[in-house]
Amino acid sequence: MRKVRYPGISIVLLTVLITLSIGCSRRSKDDTIAKDIQEKVAADPETKDSQVDVKAKNGKVTVSGKVKSPAAQQKVEQIAREEPGIASVDDQSTIEPNLPPAQEVAPAMASVPPPVEKPKPQPIVVPAGTVLTVRTQQALSSKTSQAGQTFLATLAQPVSVGGRRALPAGATIKGTVVSAKSKGKIKGEAELSLTLVNISVGDHTYEIQTTSISSTQKGKGKRTAATTGGGAAGGALIGGLAGGGKGAGIGALVGAGAGFIGGAMTGNKQIELPAESALSFTLAEPLTLPPPHD
Q: Are residues 251 and 135 located together in one domain of the fold?
């Protein structure tokens, strides 16, 4: 079987390939011509102040932009015409005598300082171990209070971190009764233990973890006050315990008449905490607050 040949198609394909190759070569050569002329104009003492743009297409060079004098305009055109491989030069540049020298343009641009990025505000972290002194808004008692019961208090003293106000005085704080046990008439002991669970600052409420503070009434004249979850520095009852005497007080409000106070001297004393009592708790975990607004 004889093979059918199509010489006409082969010639067409060959022509297309040659045309594409020539086009790519011509474009690359035009780019080289334009770049070479632009560099020569920038380097020549007579034309270095000129602000011109050089383009080349199929060997035809077009010069546009601004030059400082007729002499500079002629020099630019001369540089373009002397470039090897060009077919013609079309000088469209205009003359502007007040054109600033090239060396004055760069300093003007360099004199503009870079924009200074404003540092992002950082959150405030109230560290663990910070003492929160609060005033209760309601009475609490080993006889009437129950474990799990919540109570409200206000921050008695502001808290600052690194010179920045973190927690303002008067901030609302919620606490909870950890345990409450009424003392029996004949035997047994009274117990009341408290902790704090959150604090409200502005429109936001933040969960907090503090050590617990507690007081135990064991019989006539036997009273104890203790802290749990962090040793002796974990928190304290401020003021007097039942029957007089000093409590385990720390903070600026010691001796302010607040604290766990016993009932009547009947031998059946309960632990009573009147409203406006001042207590100190210690943060067991850090509290992170958002950056303050400007």
A: yes
Q: Which amino acid is at 199?
A: I
Overall number of domains in the chain: 2
Q: Report the percentage of the chain scoring pLDDT > 70.
A: 67
Q: Show the domain range for 16.
A: 7-108
Distance CA 196, CA 211 (A): 8
**Residue 119 belongs to some domain of the structure:** no
Q: Find where tokens 């360099």 sit.
A: 110
The verdict on 146 and 257 lying in the same domain is yes
Task: Report which residue type is found at 232.
Answer: A
pLDDT band at 26; cut points 50, 70, 90 = low
Which of 108, 141, 169 lies at the terminal end of a domain, its last residue? 108
* Residue 158 backbone dihedrals phi, psi, to 5 degrees: -70, 155
Indicate if 92 and 156 belong to the same structural domain: no
User: What CATH number did the domain enclosing 277 receive?
Assistant: 2.40.128.260
Q: Are 56 and 33 in contact (CB under 8 A)?
A: yes
Shared-domain flag, residues 207 and 245 = yes
Query: Do 99 and 129 fall within a single domain?
Result: no
The whole-chain average pLDDT of the chain stands at 75
Residue-by-residue DSSP string for the chain: -PPP--HHHHHHHHHHHHHHHHHHHHHHHHHHHHHHHHHHHHHSTTTTT-EEEEEEETTEEEEEEEESSHHHHHHHHHHHHTSTT--EEEE--EE-TTPPPHHHHHHHHHTSPPPPPPPPPPPEEE-TT-EEEEEESS-EETTT--TT-EEEEEESS-EEETTEEEE-TT-EEEEEEEEEEPPPSSS--EEEEEEEEEEEETTEEEE--B-EEEEEE-STT-EEEEEESSGGGGEEE-SB-TTSSB-S--STTTTSS-S-EE--SSS---EEE-TT-EEEEEBSS-EEEPPPP-
> pTM for this structure?
0.50
